[in-house]
Amino acid sequence: MDENSVSQEPKPTSAKSMALKVVLPILIGLCVVVWLFHKEFSVELWKSIHFDHRVVLCIVLAWLFMAGRDFGLTWRFRTLTDRHLTWWQALKVNFMCEFTSCVTPSAVGGSSLGMIFMHHEGINLGRATTLMFTTLFLDELFFVVACPIVMLLIPYAELFGFKDTHFEVGLRWVFWIVYGAIFIWTTILFLGIIVKPNGIRSGLIFIFRLPFIRRWQPAVIALGDNMVSASKDLRTRPVKWWAETFFATALTWSSRFLVVNALFFGFVPTADQLIVFGRQFVVWVVLMVSPTPGGSGVSEWLFTEYYGDMLHNSGMALIIALFWRIITYYIYLLVGIFLAPSMLAPRKVSPDSETADKQKTNI
Question: Within 268-330, where are the H helices?
Fold first, then answer.
């Protein structure tokens, strides 16, 4: 792969810029939480909650499920790099991908910067770009495959038609539009990196000759070039390799969804756990188009509105939402603050490793 065909390593982020990126999502989330507390919370509700052994154990279980999510992604990075990354290196890449997801709009995500973090840990930048496409494809493929399974297991009315208010109607539209976009993007990635990379490249370039989207053609050409290069490696991978990486992906997302199941089992043990799990799938699909960093603000509001009918109390939904966001979001902001200075600094490359890096690129 020609390393000039991929994005170059970005300049180090300044401390001031990094602080702003961290503070902004926190402020957005706190503002929405304060507004929701003012609207829904009551002292009587808080007094009614007893943090007994079951509740505490379920909160611990929620943390364990989130650890399962981190294990799945770390395992996937190890497999993708053919064990060239140690467990600690793969874990750092995982944390940084999640951190960048927390400080960028959900539509951008942290996976797009995964190649930079892998390169920082010693993976050739060209190969890291190939692996970035693989992670994107695996994540999108999981949602494409999981959707019909969720729809078969859970009554449609329990997911979308429970009240038929403006919120539920809007949620249905957003979900199916986003899922349709995911399906199309997954198909493009599959054809582009597995089946017909040159054909997809030519088709995208042709489409982006249209006047109103022509300004994005250079980026599309680079995307097509990277797909063609990625295809050379991915088309030779055995079925076992694909099965292992997809299983790690499924473990990652399922563990993330199960965090809410654990919290519901602690605070609302009578809730239908299958419906709780299915609604998490819907929540994460919808959050993919959140305009705020890491879905801050939108996540808390969506959670309380969507799960409120299962609790018959929006205040309880808000309390569970706070625990959910602390476990799945704020903890990664905290970890990222400590890792970012070293992971975003210029990579130190010795002359010998730089020569080897160039030789791998020319293969």
Answer: 273-287, 298-311, 314-325
Contact 298, 28 (CB under 8 A): no
pTM of the model: 0.81
- The letter for the amino acid at 158 is E
Neighbours of 140 (CB within 10 A): 22
Task: Give the contacts of 1 (CB within 8 A, at least 6 positions apart).
Answer: 126, 127, 129, 130, 229, 232, 361
Helix (H, G, I), strand (E, B) or coil at 154: coil
306 neighbors 280 (Cβ within 8 angstroms): no
d(CA 280, CA 234): 31
Q: Please state, in angstroms and as integers, the Cα–Cα distance from residue 42 to each residue in 45, 277, 298, 313, 318, following that order.
A: 5, 27, 22, 11, 11
* Cα Rg of the chain (Å, integer): 22
359, two tokens: 């030789």
Q: What parts of the chain have a pLDDT lower than 70?
A: 1-26, 28-30, 32-48, 106-112, 161-164, 312-314, 343-363
Q: Are 251 and 235 in contact (CB under 8 A)?
A: no
